[in-house]
Design brief:
The protein is mainly α. The protein has one domain. The protein contains ten helices and five strands. The chain starts with a helix and ends in an 8-residue tail after the last helix. The mean pLDDT is 91. It binds zinc ion.
C-alpha cells in the first residue's frame, strides 16, 4: 500500500516536473512587447487551422458575406463597405510588414509572418458587433460593429464609414492578436492543462470519488484562472500592437481609447464575444493608452506629417 502511494505520488510529481520542463523549454519572445509566450504550435499549423476555420465561418454565413459568390447582396453600398474594409486592411497589413522588418533590424530574433500571410478581408452582414483576424491574416468585419466604430447614432448605415479611424482601431487590434500568435499560445496552454489533468488523475488513484472531484475542480479553476490572466495580457498586447499599426498606417491614434470606451459601454449581450470576459478592466486599458499616447502622437506627426496634439 505504501509503495503504491509512493509510486502514484512519484508518477504525479514526475509528470508535473516534465510538464514544467516542457513549459519552460517552449518559451519564445513576442517581439512587439518583449513578453515570453508558451507556444508549441508551428506557424504553418496555425495558419492552416486559421484557413480552415475561416472557410467554415464564411460557409456558415454564405449569403451574408457581402459580394461573395453566394452573396444575397452586392449593391453599391455593399461594394463600398467591402472596398473600405479592404483599403483599411491593406494599409494595416503594410504597416505590419514594416513593423516586423523594423523589429528584425533592431536585432529581435523571430520569424516574421506579415509578409507571408494570405491577407483576406470579408464583410459579413450581421447584427453581431464583431470582428476578427485568424492566423494567416483572415479578417472578417461584421456590419453590426460599424455603428460603434462609426458615428454611434444607434443605427448602421453608410455614414458610419465617413470616418474610418475607429474601424481601423478594431482591425488593427485583431491583426495584433494574429501577429503575436495568441491563438496558437492559447491552444498550447490548453494542451498543457489537459496533460496536467492526466497527471493529477493518475496521482490520486486511491482517493474517494468526492475527493477526486474536489481536487479536479480545484485544478480546473486554477487552470482557468491562469488562462484568463493570459488572455487579459493578450488584449493589452493586441492594443499595443494595434496602436503601432495605426500610427504606421497614418490613422489617428487618439481614436483608440475613444473606441474602447464605446466598446465598454455596450451591454454584455451586445458586446462582441471576444470582449465579454477577457477584455482588461476599462481603467487598466485607459491607463495603458494614456501611457502610450504621447509617443504614438509624436510618431504619428513625424511619419504622417501631421500636427495633432494630445487633446482632441
Ligand atoms: Zn482582442
Amino acid at each position: 500500500m505504501g509503495n503504491l502511494l509512493r509510486s502514484r505520488l512519484g508518477i504525479l510529481i514526475g509528470g508535473l516536473v516534465l510538464l514544467a520542463l516542457y513549459w519552460f523549454s517552449n518559451q519564445q519572445e513576442v517581439p512587439f512587447t518583449g513578453r515570453k509566450q508558451f507556444n508549441t504550435m508551428s506557424i504553418e499549423d496555425s495558419v492552416r487551422l486559421g484557413a480552415q476555420s475561416y472557410s467554415q465561418i464564411l460557409q456558415q454565413e454564405s449569403g451574408d458575406v457581402l459580394c461573395s459568390r453566394a452573396a444575397r447582396s452586392c449593391d453599391a453600398n455593399a461594394r463600398e463597405l467591402v472596398r473600405t474594409v479592404n483599403e483599411i486592411g491593406l494599409r494595416l497589413q503594410n504597416a505590419a510588414v514594416e513593423l516586423e522588418q523594423d523589429l528584425l533590424a533592431q536585432g529581435y530574433n523571430f520569424a516574421p509572418v506579415a509578409d507571408q500571410f494570405d491577407w483576406t478581408y470579408n464583410v459579413i452582414n450581421s447584427d453581431t458587433p464583431n470582428a476578427f483576424c485568424l492566423p494567416g491574416g483572415y479578417v472578417a468585419v461584421y456590419t453590426g460593429i460599424l455603428d460603434i466604430t462609426g458615428n454611434y447614432d444607434g443605427q448602421v448605415d453608410m455614414r458610419d464609414i465617413d470616418d474610418v479611424d475607429k474601424l481601423a482601431v478594431v482591425m488593427g487590434h485583431e491583426i495584433g492578436h494574429a501577429l503575436a500568435h495568441h491563438g496558437a499560445e492559447r491552444m498550447s496552454q490548453q494542451q498543457v492543462v489537459q496533460m496536467g489533468q492526466l497527471a493529477v488523475g493518475l496521482g490520486m488513484g486511491d482517493m474517494s470519488a468526492s475527493q477526486r472531484q474536489a481536487v479536479m475542480q480545484a485544478f480546473g479553476m486554477a487552470a482557468q484562472g491562469g488562462i484568463l490572466a493570459f488572455s487579459r495580457e493578450h488584449e493589452t498586447e493586441a492594443d499595443k500592437i494595434g496602436l503601432d499599426l495605426l500610427v504606421r498606417a497614418c490613422f489617428d491614434p487618439r481614436e483608440a481609447p475613444d473606441l474602447w470606451e464605446r466598446m465598454g459601454e455596450q451591454g454584455s449581450g451586445q458586446r462582441p464575444p471576444e470582449w465579454m470576459s477577457t477584455h482588461p478592466a476599462s481603467e487598466t486599458r485607459a491607463e495603458n493608452f494614456r501611457r502610450w499616447m504621447p509617443d504614438a502622437i509624436s510618431e504619428y506627426n513625424r511619419r504622417c506629417g501631421g500636427s495633432i496634439r494630445l487633446e482632441n
